[in-house]
Amino acid sequence: MAVYTDVAADELAEFLKHYDIGELLSYKGIAEGVENSNFLLHTTAGSFILTLYEKRVAKNDLPFFLGLMTHLASNGISCPQPVKNKSGEALSTLAGRPAAIINFLEGVWPRKPNATHCAGVGEALAKMHLAGKGFAMSRANALSVSGWRPLFEQAASRADEVQPGLRGFIETELDYLEGGVWPKNLPHGVIHADLFPDNVFFLGDQVSGIIDFTFACNDLLAYDVAICLNAWCFESDCSFNVTKARALLAAYGRERELSEAEQKALPVLARGAALRFLLTRLVDFLNVPAGALVRPKDPLEYARKLRFQQGVSSMRDYGIAASGLVA
Ligand SMILES: Nc1ncnc2c1ncn2[C@@H]1O[C@H](COP(=O)(O)OP(=O)(O)O)[C@@H](O)[C@H]1O
Ligand SMILES: N[C@@H](CCOP(=O)(O)O)C(=O)O
Question: Which end of the chain has less Cβ packing within 10 Å, N or C?
């Protein structure tokens, strides 16, 4: 999260009168994250998170995100729950932005994920995929293959300012991924689509819950696995850590078996996942709004991960045998 839109104390106190969550004691903007404006609220009834939805979130999609959290929680997944106001609505407006309050989830996200954390996220992801079955709403992934070129076009003319040659590197990769290699017939369902370490909370070694469903959508389940491989299984120097990948994939596989076709597709899905985050990071890096409380994320981290994924064409290239997925 971040803060792009400020909220005045009197405005917030007035807003909270529409909820049954007590009197406002204090609130502060949360600097972490990059997508929406988020505030930690302390009221006489406890702690809550207030989100004002920003640029990448279409208002029409909000019922999907909020409904999904409710659906997942009622199917055994620990995630924040939307708090309804006195009129029974989870979605409202504050400071001119669509706004929602969710309950506070205990736990901390791992700053340096180890193999145990990776196993935790693998298990949580598979359980989320299974729990997503039966969710009645659907939402196409606006940031899948057809969404990448429009993102690139927003950043292309300045990409080489970030790293010489970056524009050509991205263009070549886009041409490749748009050229018919993207898998079509793999199992699909509701995916989180942004299950990075800062969106998974732990208490000790155990996952206490997952947050931030603002990219959730219907897409290939294995694409979510690929996003996690990129986000969890590299070291800070961007070297791939096969021990972490084995832990993540094995734990995932114990809950939901990855088919042979999904395993075969993982390298190309991981290339796409790397490009997707490279592009959003690049656009954000080049367009930090004046006065926003936000730390843009490093696009080049994902250029390095993409280079690694370009050299992989099978599970064996990761150093993972099929039997390693059901340890
Ligand atoms: N339900 C929650 N309980 C506790 N902390 C939360 C909750 N939701 C968000 N946070 C805090 O806000 C940070 C960023 O939230 P996130 O949803 O990832 O942001 P964004 O809306 O920008 O994607 C988290 O890393 C965490 O510190
Ligand atoms: N995970 C994305 C950024 C968006 O997610 P947030 O949870 O940090 O707001 C990235 O790392 O590029």
Answer: C
Question: Is 163 in the same domain as 17?
Answer: no
Q: How many structural domains is the chain composed of?
A: 2
pLDDT tens digits, 51-82: 999 877 888 999 999 999 999 999 999 999 99
Same domain for 159 and 81: no
Average pLDDT over residues 273-284: 97
Ligand 1 neighbours (beta carbon < 6 A):
1-2, 30, 32-36, 38, 49, 51, 80, 102, 104-105, 109, 198-199, 211-212, 214
Distance 181 CA to ligand 1 centre (A): 35
Residue nearest to atom 6 of ligand 2 (CA): 33
Q: Is residue 256 part of a domain?
A: yes
Ligand 1 mean position to 123 CA, how many Å?
21
- Residue 109 inside a domain? The answer is no
Structure-block tokens of residue 101: 């309050």
The answer to whether residue 4 is domain-embedded is: no
Based on the domain organization, do 82 and 158 belong to the same domain? no
Relative to the CA of 281, which ligand 2 atom is closest?
12
Instruction: Find the CATH number of the domain harbouring 203.
Output: 3.90.1200.10
Q: What is the CB neighbour count within 10 angstroms for residue 262? A: 21
pTM: 0.94
Q: Is the pLDDT of residue 2 over 80?
A: no
Domain that holds residue 94: 9-103
In a domain, 110, yes or no: no
